Structure formats: structure tokens, C-alpha cells
Amino acid sequence: MLSVRSIFGPRLRSSMLLLQSSTASYSASSAAAIQAERTISEGPRNDWTRDEIKSIYDSPVLDLLFHGAQVHRHAHNFREVQQCTLLSIKTGGCSEDCSYCPQSSRYDTGLKAQKLMTKEAVMQAARKAKEAGSTRFCMGAAWRDTIGRKTNFTHILEYVKEIRDMGMEVCCTLGMLEEKQAVELKKAGLTAYNHNLDTSREYYPNVITTRTYDERLDTLQFVRDAGINVCSGGIIGLGEAEEDRVGLLHTLATLPTHPESVPINALVAVKGTPLQDEKPVDVWEMIRMIGTARIVMPKAMVRLSAGRVRFSMPEQALCFLAGANSIFTGEKLLTTPNNDFDADQLMFKVLGLVPKAPSFGENAEKVYETEEAVSI
Ligand code: SF4
User: Fold this and answer.
1) Coil, strand or helix: which one is 85?
2) Residues 142-193: tens digit of each pLDDT
3) Smallest CA separation from ligand 1 atom 7, residue
4) Is 220 exposed, middle or buried (0-12, 13-18, 19+ CB in 10 A)?
5) 371 CA to centre of ligand 1 in angstroms
6) Global confidence as pTM
7) 319 an active-site residue?
8) Exposed, middle or buried: residue 190 (CB in 10 Å: 0-12, 13-18, 19+)?
């Protein structure tokens, strides 16, 4: 029997006893049960084997959901869901060939390339997002990287600073970064940098050929070294096998430090992209990804991201139960449709969810601790 010792605080012992008594008769039969119990008692690990993660992923889905929920409740306030807003500040015309992306200049999707948005327009969007309850504002630019974009990069540093001064967490996704740029973003007050791995190392060349998996990992390392939180996840529904989904989670869960944020996206197939005819994933596939991510990376914010628009409120409720604790709100997710604002407000009310307040680390949090989360 593992000792009851945890990073998760004083609630653990009684909850563990309850968990042990309620699952004793079948915990041995489910990898989700065994590994969730281990995660709760030992805390996050970085030495996962691919087979271990595969066994969790392959557990009976209701068992995976139940044990994802157990880990979630030990590591997080289960009622809190962070609302993030993702704005495309520079749309289209990207030189990369990501086969799911309507912003690639290689595909005829009818999307018009635009220049970097002005400061006024970005700030207006950030204020609107804050008023609507978002505590994280993410800015996306359709670039391979930021090298040679000195003027635009300087503008983005200003945007980061001003939005951070509004009391919001700020995230950017601008393509590949160099070490120096990561340091500058950190100085400007960036909370997190998003750079998804998308899929497994093995399947990756089927999705994108213009940058390598290792280049993506390099960017994540520069972000981590600069002291910026890492946001990295992937997309399901690209035509990959379940083994590739496991491979993606394995890479993330064996990084020296787990990403603070793991977006789980379901492909939104866009006409004109090479993946336009891929079938939509069903909610049980999302639940498997979310529950597994929650068990293997217990402290991460697991973000129910693109593709949420296709899920009903009960389906989203199951995703939250399995361990998701963040959504993107607002009309669009970069260029694809997103859930209706009023429907999200109603969902929070019906499910008893509360918006998660922003978090800036121990010192910065004190500055903002008087700000109350808006109850819906
Ligand atoms: S996902 Fe990003 S890097 Fe890839 S084509 Fe789209 S905008 Fe460019």
C-alpha cells in the first residue's frame, strides 16, 4: 500500500480513505484507478512509460472519467473553470504547411491575410474579454517564427505589457521563438507561451513538414528557461491512431517540468485544407484525452479548446468532470467558430461552475488578490 503523502494538501487523507474503500473491489482491474491513486499519493511524475499512459488511456471510459475526476478534485478546485480569450492579432498568410490550418498560405480556404492589428484594436478586444469574464488573454499571430519581425515584435511586447497591467494573464502564440525573444517576452510580463506539439513524434510528419518536432521542443525549452509558463497540447482528429494520442501525452508528461497548461483540441475541419474531409471526433475521445492528461499531469490546466463548439452542455459537463478546467470564450478561436457567449454563461450557471481568477505566481498574486471573481 502506498503511503498517503501528497502535494495536494490536508483534504487528502480522508478523501484517499474514501477513494480506497469505494474502489477497492475493482481498482486492480483498471490502470486509470491504479495510476490515479498513485498520482494522488505521490504527486506529479515525469518518468511515465508510454505503456503506462496507454493503459490509462485504454481503461474503461467511465472508470477513466471517474478517476480523472478524483485526481482533478485533489489538485484543483473542481468548480473553477478559467475563461480565456484567444484573439488572432495577425491573421493568415503563414508560410508553414500545418495541414489542419486555414491560415497557411499554401491552402485555398478563402481566408484573407491581414497585417498585425493595431494597439487600439487589441486593447479594445482585451477590455471586452475582461468584461466578459476572461482572466487570460491570448494573442495569436500566423507566423513561422518571429525572427526578422523586429517592429511587429516590439509592438507585441507593448501589447503584452498593457494587457498584463489590466490584471489579466497574457499568453502569446507567435510560432517558433529564439532564446532572446523569450527573455524579452518574460520582461514584458508574459504569463505563458503557447506552442503545441500537435501529435506524436511519429505521426507529426504527416501533419506538418516545414518545421520539425525537435524545433517545437526547442521553443518550449526557451520558454521554460525564460521563466514563462509553458502551454502545449495537441489536436485529435488529424487522422492519427490512438497510439499517437498516447505518444503526444507521453512526450508532454515526460518533459522535465510538465506544461502548466495543456490544450486539448478537436480538429475543426476547414474546407480547402488537406484535412477538410476528416470526420469529427466524438466526445468520448475527448474524454479519454482529458482524463488521461489529468491523471498524468495533475497540476496542469487542461483546456477544452477547439472543437468545443460541437459539444452539447452535457457533453462538456463530462469533459469538466474528467478534468478539464479551462475553456476559450469569445466568438472565434483564431479563425474558426466558437461557442456562444450566452450559452457559456448558462452552462456555468447550470453546472455550478465559477470563473477562475487570474494567477501570476506568488508575489504578483498579492497585487490582485482584492479582485473578486465575477460570479455568474
Ligand atoms: S498553425 Fe500556425 S504555424 Fe501552422 S500554418 Fe497555421 S498559423 Fe502557420
Assistant:
1) strand
2) 999 888 788 999 999 999 999 999 999 999 999 999 999 999 999 999 999 9
3) 142
4) buried
5) 36
6) 0.86
7) no
8) buried
CA 351: distance to chain centroid? 21
Place of cell 474528467: 322
Query: What is the Cα gyration radius of the chain?
Result: 20
CB under 6 Å to ligand 1: residues? 94, 96, 98, 101, 103-104, 142, 175
pLDDT of residue 31: 96
* Contact criterion met (CB below 8 Å) for 114 and 91: yes
Q: Which of 84, 136, 211, 231 is catalytic?
A: 231
Establish whether 101 is a catalytic residue: yes
Domains for the chain: give ranges and CATH numbers.
12-70 (no CATH), 80-368 (3.20.20.70)
3-state SS assignment for residue 262: strand
The C-alpha angle with vertex 245 and arms to 242 and 246, in degrees rounded to 5, equals 90
The model's pLDDT over 243-270, given as tens digits with 9 standing for 90+, comes to 999 999 999 999 999 999 999 999 999 9
Residue 319, annotated ligand binder? no
